[in-house]
Design a protein that fits this description.
Layout: H1 3-35, H2 38-57, H3 62-70, H4 77-103, H5 111-120, H6 124-139, H7 144-167, H8 171-175, H9 177-187, H10 190-199, H11 210-217, H12 221-244, H13 247-284, H14 289-313, H15 315-323, H16 331-337, H17 339-356, H18 360-411, H19 423-438, H20 444-460, H21 466-476
Length: about 475
């Protein structure tokens, strides 16, 4: 399979896997928001945030390390799988114990909310092991297995959740379906391991190797920094809003975050698609790294700018369409928050380039600087400006992380010019905005017609040329 087709395949399958495995939680939140109280929606979103941050903080960057180390050593898959699964299971179990300890303190949540958090977070262990399995298949460029498994788990959560809501109308009972669905999805992966090990020669058996585990743990300090700082960055505003503001405002903020979450899956898919290729280039063809970086950055800018702009313009239409009128105030934070996705995607090739070069500690400290700014700023703006202030801080911090990373790789002597990639997409964006404003009273039609205008202007400006069309044909071709 040629490189363009492989990247496109990895991106689409990764996005599908992320979307399908996570969409059930999103849809359940939307259903709770539309059928139950705003406070119930806030409690459900808070439980999701607790589980997400606990899962991420216990990951210790093992997924990224596994992909980097296993991609060039595919004959050692059994050794990596069994030992990484053990480590991840231990960290997830310890994390759940610490979460239970936290919930036993006097944090300002109701007894029911604490119960919902405890039940939701039972999914920690199956989700943690699933993340290692997903990274394992990514290292082999086989993303179908986690996509199918995520589909099964998501289907169980959604259908089971709807059945529980119909028969019991209880948020606590509904939450039980989350760990059940995650466990069933994980079990679905077992046949795929048997098939892979049958097709790819393995030089090791499924046997624990304590010296190997210690060797891998010695490499994760930088990845731990990245994981801890990045995920605290991602969730700290939700916790601060839950403590400093009302449950209603928390629900509005969670509604905006849920929309942004859908777009952030694009970021996760791009990370998954480009990381194995960058790792291969670093070991085998380092001269290809910089051109590959420039290529990914260019298409990221062209792709994400119109989407974030249109979400800003039609934020209220989107919120009311999804959640109905009571969630209308969520449109203001959504207008600011969506631009975080732009900088997250722009940051991907920079972050991946640093990781394959072994600069994970530096990337971790850059993310830590962003976290410090994030928490400090939110403690000031949330009491004064509410959820709008918290939403504004997110893209500001994301832009700081990107700029610091970009300046760091430039300081290493890597000649990359990101500024030159912006002028023509910005001109096309201006034409798109003018068309969107002409149809501001409607939603779906101007959304799609604006995208069409953007693509046409890019073509006439020469930003999309025959080379790009040939590249697209390569992505879609069978050979």
């Amino acid at each position: 399979m040629n490189l363009p087709r492989k990247l496109f395949s990895n991106f689409t399958l990764s996005f599908a896997s992320q979307l399908i495995s996570k969409i059930s939680d999103v849809l359940l939140f939307i259903i709770v928001a539309r059928t139950m109280s705003v406070e119930d929606a806030g409690a459900f979103r808070l439980a999701k945030s607790f589980m997400a941050v606990t899962l991420a903080l216990s990951a210790f960057g093992l997924q990224d390390l596994l992909i980097r180390e296993l991609a060039p050593r595919r004959n050692e898959g059994k050794k990596y799988l069994i030992n990484y699964v053990l480590v991840r299971a231990v960290t997830a179990t310890c994390a759940y114990g610490l979460l239970l300890l936290l919930l036993s303190t006097n944090i300002p949540y109701s007894t029911e909310t604490k119960s919902i958090i405890r039940i939701f977070s039972l999914a920690l262990l199956p989700e943690a092991i699933f993340s290692i399995c997903e990274a394992f298949f990514t290292a082999y460029d086989r993303l179908w297995p986690p996509t199918v498994a995520g589909s099964v788990g998501g289907f169980v959560k959604l259908v089971g959740g709807l059945w529980i809501l119909f028969h019991y109308n209880s948020l606590i009972t509904l939450t039980l379906i989350i760990p059940v669905g995650s466990s069933i999805g994980l079990l679905t992966l077992l046949p795929s391991f048997w098939k892979l090990f049958k097709e790819v020669r393995q030089d090791y058996t499924l046997q624990l190797d304590w010296s190997f585990i210690i060797q891998q743990i010695n490499q994760i300090s930088g990845f731990i920094l990245i994981g801890v700082f990045f995920n605290l960055n991602d969730q700290q505003d939700t916790f601060l809003v839950s403590i400093l503001l009302s449950e209603t405002e928390l629900a509005w903020y969670g509604a905006a975050q849920t929309v942004v979450f859908g777009f952030s899956l694009l970021s996760a898919a791009i990370r998954t698609a480009v990381y194995p290729t960058m790792s291969h280039y670093y070991y085998e063809s380092p001269e290809k790294l910089v051109p590959f970086y420039q290529h990914i950055a260019r298409y990221s800018i062209i792709f994400i700018m119109p989407l974030t702009t249109l979400v800003t313009l039609f934020a209220r239409n989107i919120i009311v369409f999804i959640y109905q009128e009571p969630f209308g105030p969520a449109s203001v934070p959504l207008r600011w928050m969506i631009w975080e996705v732009f900088f997250l995607i722009l940051h991907i090739p920079t972050a991946r380039l640093m990781l394959v070069q072994g600069k994970q500690k530096q990337l971790g400290w850059i993310t830590g600087i962003g976290l410090l700014i994030n928490v400090s700023a939110n403690l000031i703006v949330i009491p004064r400006f509410g959820i709008e202030g918290a939403a504004l801080i997110r893209p500001i911090v994301a832009s700081i992380n990107y700029i610091l990373g970009y300046l760091y790789i430039r300081s290493l002597g890597i000649e990359i010019n990101i500024i030159s990639l912006f002028p023509r997409p910005l001109l096309a964006l201006g034409a798109m905005v003018m068309v969107a404003i002409l149809f501001e009273n409607s939603f779906l039609f101007p959304f799609f017609i604006s995208i069409l205008v953007y693509v046409i202007v890019l073509y006439f400006l020469g930003e999309l040329n025959h080379k790009d069309l040939n590249y697209l044909l390569q992505l879609l071709s069978k050979n």
